[in-house]
Amino acid sequence: MSEDDVPVAIIGKRGIKPSGKPTLKTIAQMTGFAVTTISRALNNAPELSQDTRDRVQKIAAEIGYLPDRTALRLRTGRTNVIALVLEPDEQIYGFGSSIVTGLSEAVRNTAYHIVITPLFRNVEPIEPIKHIVRNRMADGVLFSKAESFDERIRMLIDNDFPFVSHGRTNWPDSHAWVDFDNQAYAYGATKRLAEKGCKKISIILPDSALTYADHLKTGLSRAATEAGVDYEFAADVNLGSPTDAIRNYVMKRTKRPDGPDGWVCASEVSALAVIGALNESGKTVGGNVHVVSKQASEMFAQFQPGAETVFEDFIDAGRQMGSLLLRRIAGEEIGDLHHLAEPKFDWKD
């Protein structure tokens, strides 16, 4: 047992919640440990025994102890907070909850807490980033939908503020990121549709400013050219369009003589709109028309009869983002702070 593990005095009784706001001193009085030991135990200091850490953390939870983040920031320059910026739609469609699940696994057994910062509609994406950086609201930040030349990333690099983006950019400066290989996905999906006999393949792309829009276009066009089939990129709609707009677009294209007989879908929501439109148009998915889509949830499997899917693991993406951010906060150079998830094609013939 180390010197800091030796009880100094036992004041108060275990199980009796103290009056007033609990402090480190309160826990020290209830456990008999020095205040410095309490602080280190709450921060999972590895030099303390696991029994000591467990005991202190259990009592802290029982009495409702919350750290004074203002005092912590003044004393150490740290907040022990990781900010995750999310749009409301990302939460609704399950992306946000999956990212949070993975991120929670990454910060478990650390001193860090997750704070979700909303990005509201009609607000520029850089605004919540400015607020976090200028007010030092967190030690690091995570966000999604990286653009080719994302001004959020430029600002964070210029301010030497730790961050990890979900998605890559075309900035010449290296930065930490986690991404799914959308080029490989579009290539493999298009090859599969060509194997199924499709003669013309279409895709509904993300907003053109997003980096992965170019990745999808490159993968699809290269595979279609190699397979000797026609292809097109959907006009007038993108992944951010209302589902009704996507359905109407697909129905109109399907009714034309030159309409696609193969669809690559870059999200579950767009896939449901595409499949619904094809069914309403009298097409049989898996028969006279084929669809390949990303799948990120088990629920999607209940509503995509006839379509083939490729899994994108957002929980692991959150886990990877959290792990890389912790390494960056600890001072690790950018170097290898990147993770590219490769699609796994498991076609059922």
Could you characterize the architecture of this molecule?
With 349 residues, the chain is α/β, with parallel strands linked by helices. Helices cover 42% and strands 15% of the residues. The strands form two sheets. Strands 2-1-3-4-5-11 form a six-stranded parallel β-sheet, with helices on both faces. Strands 7-6-8-9-10 form a five-stranded parallel β-sheet, sandwiched between helices. Helix 12 links the parallel strand 8 (262-265) and strand 9. Helix 1 packs across helix 2 (35-42) and helix 11 packs across helix 12 (268-280). The radius of gyration is 25 Å and the shape is elongated. The termini are far apart. The model is unreliable at 1-16 (pLDDT under 50). This is LacI family transcriptional regulator. Keywords: DNA-binding, Transcription, Transcription regulation. Residues 22-76 form the HTH lacI-type domain.
Quick summary:
By secondary structure, this protein is α/β, with parallel strands linked by helices.
The helicity comes to 40-55%
β-sheet strand percentage: 5-15%
The mean pLDDT is 88
Return the string of H and E elements: HHHHEHHEHEHEEHEHEHEHEEHE
Overall SS class: alpha/beta
Major pleated sheet: 6 strands, parallel
Low-confidence stretches: 1-16
Rounded to an integer in angstroms, the radius of gyration calculated over CA atoms is: 25 Å
Number of helices: 13
First CA to last CA: what distance? 62 Å
How do the strands line up in the largest sheet? 2-1-3-4-5-11
Broad shape: elongated
Number of strands: 11
Features:
elongated; disordered N terminus; DNA-binding; alpha/beta; LacI family transcriptional regulator; 349 residues; 6-stranded parallel beta sheet; 42% helix; Peripla_BP_I
